[in-house]
Task: inverse folding
């Protein structure tokens, strides 16, 4: 198969990018962004995604996001170069976007956060499929996640989350019985994934103007960002750690249950508390249910 010719024809469209297929076949997780492979269709998808979100961000996003996306100077008309993004981002919080070929095992993902690196997808959805994508793309990662990384308090909370992964690996590493190791680690990873989902991905925040969005899954969704704030079908509660770690979720529809924090200092305190609960064994038997923990995630902790 001629990957180079196919890449030029197909661009870097999610699930249809020969460049990504080749990287995965070679076992290359961390890659470079082959910017010249983006097609006109790819840039049009970015343009349309960015254009339709701007009014919604102004209406529903928290002030830290609005400051962040302005400071990144993203071009609304074309897919961003990660080197340009990092040029604006690194001086603010020492974070940087790190291009990856796809799924990052859980420990490696959190370890990247600990090192102030955010694993970033480089492909982009098709311009005729803007509303839902079952996996991340560069719009979700760069326009949803990265503006939050410009805020020092939020960035510190992410680093603290990475610390928790190392704590988890140390805890299970001290267990000699393999079956107990896997059972306990599965519960801990589930708890961490749920916490991440209901905060970093789908979190709300109190403000003087009412609830605002800071979760990237909402910030990159044209339909759900409004739904999360305005719909009477959504239950919104002040975050409680015991609720979050025992609450399952599904990814293929708008979220019916959301939690809000008071500030990013509050979020940092919650991550700190999560680690204390982990050390005390309070994450060892969380309620069963989604998300599932796969073998790759388990191995990433056991063989870090």
Result:
């Amino acid at each position: 198969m001629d990957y180079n010719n196919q890449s030029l024809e197909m661009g870097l469209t999610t699930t249809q990018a020969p460049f990504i297929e080749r990287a995965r076949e070679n076992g290359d997780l961390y890659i470079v962004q082959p910017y010249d492979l983006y097609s006109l269709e790819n840039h049009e998808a970015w343009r349309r995604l960015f254009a339709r979100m701007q009014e919604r961000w102004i209406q529903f996003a928290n002030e830290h996001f609005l400051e962040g996306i302005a400071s990144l100077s993203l071009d609304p008309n074309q897919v961003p170069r990660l080197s340009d993004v990092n040029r604006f981002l690194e001086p603010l919080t020492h974070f940087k976007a790190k291009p990856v070929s796809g799924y990052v095992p859980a420990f490696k993902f959190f370890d990247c956060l600990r090192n102030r690196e955010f694993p970033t997808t480089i492909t982009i959805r098709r311009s005729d499929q803007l509303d839902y994508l079952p996996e991340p793309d560069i719009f979700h990662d760069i326009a949803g996640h990265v503006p939050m990384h410009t805020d020092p308090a939020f960035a510190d909370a992410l680093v603290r989350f990475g610390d928790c992964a190392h704590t988890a690996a140390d805890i299970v590493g001290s267990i000699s019985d393999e079956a107990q190791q896997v059972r306990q680690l599965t519960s801990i990873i589930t708890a961490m994934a749920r916490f991440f989902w209901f905060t970093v991905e789908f979190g709300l925040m109190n403000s003087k103007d009412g609830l605002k969005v800071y979760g990237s899954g909402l910030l990159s969704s044209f339909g759900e960002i409004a739904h999360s704030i305005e719909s009477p079908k959504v239950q919104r509660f002040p975050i409680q750690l015991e609720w979050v770690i025992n609450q399952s979720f599904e990814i293929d529809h708008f979220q019916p249950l959301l939690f809000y924090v008071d500030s990013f200092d509050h979020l940092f305190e919650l991550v700190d508390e999560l680690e204390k609960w982990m050390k005390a064994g309070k994450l060892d038997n969380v309620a069963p249910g989604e998300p599932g923990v796969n073998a790759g995630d388990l191995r990433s902790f056991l063989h870090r």
